Amino acid sequence: MKSYFVRLKFKWLLYALYRLIRFTAWRSDEFKAKLLEKDLSIVMKSKDDTIARTIHCYGGKVRTQKGQAPEVVSRIVWDTPEAGVRVMTKMIKGVPKALATAVIEKDLHPQGDAGGIRWFIDLVTLLGKAYRKKKPGPK
Q1: Would you say residue 136 lies in a domain?
Q2: Is residue 93 part of a domain?
Q3: 22 located within any domain
Q4: 3-state secondary structure labels for all residues of the chain
Q5: With 50 labelled, which of 13, 23, 27, 80 sits at a CA distance of 20 to 30 A?
Q6: pLDDT at res. 35
Q7: Residue 137 domain-assigned?
Q8: Confidence label for 136 from pLDDT (cuts 50, 70 and 90)
Q9: What per-residue confidence (pLDDT) applies to 138?
Q10: Could you tell me the CATH number of the domain that includes residue 117?
Q11: What is the domain extent for residue 90?
């Protein structure tokens, strides 16, 4: 039963990432400029192919679809849904280098076009910076 809830949480986190990207593009000019840099589709999925979401970024617009689109050349593959939930939760909490650590620990496997994956990771990093609390400056 626990596995079912973890899988459900992973699906919702993938969808929530899409919604947050879309909202931030509407809210932040810097983020919108980053979206305009590149047109690509990327799949985020579990290694066993049971959970997948494709995120399309074209012309500064973001769309999503459940499952894997056939034309995608970049994939971010999570070893297990549990690993995906754990790492994405760290990302939400603002843990620096959460994705890099996940690759080192073999919880995350980037596949395909490295430039597209790097751009998407930079986009997610910029997303984190957009919502991180700013420290007060010196008085």
Answers
A1: no
A2: yes
A3: yes
A4: CHHHHHHHHHHHHHHHHHHHHHHHHHHCHHHHHHHHHCCEEEEEEECCCCCEEEEEEECCEEEEEECCCCCCCEEEEECCHHHHHHHHHHHHHCCCCHHHHHHHCCCEEEEECHHHHHHHHHHHHHHHHHHCCCCCCCC
A5: 23
A6: 92
A7: no
A8: low
A9: 67
A10: 3.30.1050.10
A11: 2-128
